[in-house]
Amino acid sequence: MNVMRVAQVSAPGEKFEIVERELPEPGPGHVRVAVEAAGICRSDAGFVAGAFPGTPFPLVTGHEVAGRVDALGEGVTGWRVGDRVEVGWFGGHCGHCVPCRQGDFIDCADLRVPGWAYQGGFAEAMVAPVTALARVPDALSATEAAPLGCAGATTYNALRHGGAHPGDLVAVLGVGGLGHLGVQYANRFGYETVAIARGRDKEPLARQLGAHHYIDSTADDVAEALQRLGGARIVLGTAASSDAMSAAVGGLRPRGRLVVLGATPEPLRISPHSLIMGSRSVHGHPSGTAQDVAETMAFSALTGVRPMVETLPLDQVNDAYQRMLSGAAASAWSSPSADGERAPGSQRTHRPRPRTIGGDLRRLRPRVRLLPPIRGTTPCRRTAPSGPGPGRDRSARRMRPRRHRPIRGTRRA
């Protein structure tokens, strides 16, 4: 019998333990993924505590998974053994509820989240439906790709659908696992980026990531500071603090939007008057589908957005989990290798290379598609300038309708 190692929690609130399980075989429409890196997300704490309804125990969580296709189930097309893939928060959808029938798969009534609906990525292998797979670009390593399946797709999607335009003031509340990616994406989108955090110790990191301004929420009123900068078009609430997000609403410009990403059970304390006067709004945002994850990774590879990670072997999953809870690591990854061997025990920190919007995107050029001429017209030619001179073609004409032969038996008008 083929076996694999997994990191499981036997009961709510207990620690992870390494056990062996039978290597699963993929069913129809599924693939088996050999896990190379699995991210520890803040949401995993909710699963470990049993806060999500129906959480199965013993639990193998993990919904930021990068690896390679190891086996194909019946009927799988478009994927081959060895393909590099990512499985994020979006682990599949039912296909028959109203949101699914409207194409809104991320809001599926029976959304299948890895580690909740089925075994997650804190293991040497996992099985996932093909609808959950996103292809990993060659430019990204497994440890760089893993967090983009949830933290990356969440911040990237929230910003690109937030309604801001290049040059608008966009604030990122929190510079942690979500926020350090949000600052980078905001900079690459061409926004005037504001990072908001507690204390001055995170300012150097925030500016390295691309923030143009920094607000210390312990020393300044966040709303007033944002208004002095002109008011924010978007405040991206990545910090899991209802009080911090509520305090930032006053810093929105007219028709500005607070986008809530940080999950917390505490209610927001926002006056209806602060929303009505200025037409401000509050908007919740989930993660993204497999296609959103693929687009997040492609954009990150193109523009140099990279997560800050620390790599630890699967055996040290409890240490990695505690570092994530304490905030000592921006993102922590439990990383078994693809062949099932243990990853090196040494820790390694990846820091993103600081880049600006002009460095990478300036080389992009729009693609022009030449359409065939409309039937009944001659191709458009450039009209030659009047007057004599070399290279002047007096025979050039502007586009004009082509004359058609009259139907036999009729006269030309």
In short:
With 413 residues, this protein is of the alpha/beta class. Helices cover 22% and strands 21% of the residues. The protein contains 12 helices and 16 strands.
- In CATH, the homologous superfamily of the largest domain goes by the name Medium-chain alcohol dehydrogenases, catalytic domain
**Level-1 CATH class name of the largest domain:** Alpha Beta
Count of β-strands: 16
| CATH-defined topology of the largest domain | Quinone Oxidoreductase, Chain A, domain 1
State Rg: 27 Å
Mean pLDDT reading? 84
Could you tell me the strand content as a percent range?
A: 15-25%
Q: What is the straight-line distance between the termini?
A: 89 Å
Q: What structural category arises from helix and sheet content?
A: alpha/beta
Q: How do the helices and strands follow one another from N- to C-terminus?
A: EEEHEEHEEHHEHEHEHEHEHEHEHEEH
Largest sheet: 8 strands, mixed
Overall body shape: globular
Unreliable residue stretches: 337-375, 377-399
| Whole-number tally of structural domains | 2
**At CATH's second level, what is the architecture of the largest domain?**
Alpha-Beta Complex
Task: Please tally the helical runs, counting DSSP H or I stretches of 4 or more residues.
Answer: 12
Percent range of helical residues: 10-25%
